[in-house]
């Protein structure tokens, strides 16, 4: 039973055979390079040779954006209110939360 890679849709059927062979050779070369670099990296190494993933990059950018929004909201609240506010993650999406002091009951 012979199954070509194009039957699974990996390479478009309109791509010439010469190009297919070149693409497959390049993929195999990259796979070997990754396998070799993976075996060369020791588990305790402090420096990772891999690039950060796109998800990590997006998460970091999103955190920086939220931090900037929190800072702006906090500055605005302190400038326009006599209350005290803190930055804190909220399950309701609030960037800042008011701090309400506890008063001792008068006896």
From TrEMBL:
Any single biological process term in GO: DNA repair
GO cellular component terms, A-Z: nucleoplasm; SOSS complex
Localization of this protein: Nucleus
Keywords: DNA damage, DNA repair, Nucleus
Pfam families given in the database record: SOSSC
UniProt entry tagged with the keyword Aminoacyl-tRNA synthetase: no
Family statement: Belongs to the SOSS-C family.
Quaternary structure and interacting proteins, as annotated: Component of the SOSS complex.
Biological function: Component of the SOSS complex, a multiprotein complex that functions downstream of the MRN complex to promote DNA repair and G2/M checkpoint. The SOSS complex associates with single-stranded DNA at DNA lesions and influences diverse endpoints in the cellular DNA damage response including cell-cycle checkpoint activation, recombinational repair and maintenance of genomic stability. Required for efficient homologous recombination-dependent repair of double-strand breaks (DSBs).
Name of the molecule in the record: SOSS complex subunit C
Species classification: Eukaryota, Metazoa, Chordata, Craniata, Vertebrata
